């Protein structure tokens, strides 16, 4: 066994970073045995010194991240700062100085993964980022290694714990969105500014990363259709319940039936209570992967939090250190398939549409005609009268999203339709 | 990209082997892109020629497996024969001739993993075996790579599809064991001789492999306590149902609370219907992994079958080929922790005990005294009288298995106890 330690620079010492530092210290012997050489924390870059970080060696703290990654003796840089800059510049500098990088930065990977992969490859180093998607749940490695001999057709799941916590609260307590958000904030599940989570940006970044790996195709954040969940109401949950359903924010990456294009999207969707994802509670994540030979696989676990994310970071750290010792690199970007990413209009999906309509003869015929005119076939329809109005619930068969949304627009223009709501359905 | 192909020898061409051959042919371009060089099927060893194998190139078929692995130009040997011999001799010969090995052979790995790992390491080649445990479900790679920076405390799950199919049938249809086994056999879920499955040998081999990887400790098949499921009756299911439970054959690998030893066992267990494993139906597999930092992860999918197993084999094939090209090897055996494997008596577990007792004063006191004398604490007790007899159901708190089984023996010796059944409970 080599005795000269591998040197690790840690960028960021918040919830995840401090946990990484703690485990590297307390489990040093295990890491040494698993890597085949000792690893040493050589420096920790933070934005501000002064704050007490329990269990983190104070003498390693620096505010000069750039100088740290440029030191020249760093083997691996662990980036847990998040955000685009200065993370991007620091990672690039790390590559230039021969360091491999383990990152938990989903936003950066989704935005600029191709360039980062290219830079890593150019300098003969690794870029690993299991922690960027679904915390501790192994997803990146299974997709890019375990299923490397298979053809993935769909990745579908709950990849944002904050919104799942909020939706679960709304479902179980009947609370409205803002009330559930307040609870999530109070319990630390939502940040002070929850936009990235509730508007689906976080899930969309993860969908871009997962789609890219699953389909060997570059998928950028801009390629991902994104709908947040701020407009889901308590009434929507009540209506879903009547249909034996609940509402989840899903990330869905699909290969088209003809195999010639892919799509990636994030939106709330009604799913039957019998669907395994319906029982994913609180801030947990769960992802289905459907592959040609493997069939349907599911991965479930805590999708965020300091310890779970640190577990994923350290798993990557061990792999990257082993590669360093072997003078090799792990699998880099695999984008050879280069399939086009289709826009949302071409996605084949189903809608669940609730309409408030005038309760008089001919209305159902009028509504049904609109569906027919747009070539959208109806799966189930249910009408219930109340005080001169009627509630009409239609679940469609699968059709292109463009046809479905045009149908909804046309329905809204009918003078017999007083209002309505539509949801994606699975 | 290198254009000289990597040469693969396939040992065995049954359900899994023929699917491996088929995918290697139909998805050759994808495999080439993912590996970085073409892979070529150089030979397929079978026991008997003559049988028509659809889609398998006849000119590659040979009955001389030894000559095939000794050819000298083989880069990777894929072993899907199963059983101890000739698989062991062929794998060893492959290593000696510089070939890496991908195996789906759980029996051999559980029996002789340490020696095989040592041989692979000696010759600087890889031994991968994702397919040996739970078919297509990535478990070996997540445990030995994704969680390499974490401390696994428990692996618990359903790892045998045949027995899960039988138990699921018994649960949903009220059928007895032999009736459900007949159905499993007719549908191809059980082999003509189902012993390896129903007596728990298959699950025990997987438990040995999983425990070894999870705890960085050598665990042999003999170290695994094994109880089959042939004695589970329709009455047991009826009784479980009354308690809001079902019965599953579980493989359980645990680190002791003090961290100084590990245990591995396979036995039927009563689990609450609310437990996620209770809803694992038909021949599916599902495994929980509990790690210190990651928390609780679950992996679910098809645990057997030609295509899923081939998916796992091919994922390993890609990894092993990439290692070959890089002149490196992947993680080998990690047994540095070398923790003792405790016998079943020291396992801390719970029992669910049903007793038929005489319905007269003092019986409950007598029974309760037996528990107290053995230091076993009672969680719940339920008594129901019928025709001069009473059914007494006791669920214990957690205690050492030795104390629990001694309690059961002592209860059997009471003259007021006419009969009874006990099950492990979770």
Automatic annotation (TrEMBL), chains A, B:
Entry keyword set: Amino-acid biosynthesis, Methionine biosynthesis, NADP, Oxidoreductase, Sodium, Threonine biosynthesis
Residue span, ACT domain: 352-426
Xref: InterPro entries: ACT-like_dom_sf, ACT_dom, Asp/hSer_DH_NAD-bd, HDH, HDH_cat, HDH_CS, NAD(P)-bd_dom_sf
Protein name: Homoserine dehydrogenase
SUPFAM superfamilies in alphabetical order: ACT-like (SSF55021), Glyceraldehyde-3-phosphate dehydrogenase-like, C-terminal domain (SSF55347), NAD(P)-binding Rossmann-fold domains (SSF51735)
Superkingdom classification of source: Bacteria
Assigned protein family: Belongs to the homoserine dehydrogenase family.
One Pfam family here: NAD_binding_3
Cofactor: a metal cation
Species per Swiss-Prot/TrEMBL record: Streptomyces thioluteus
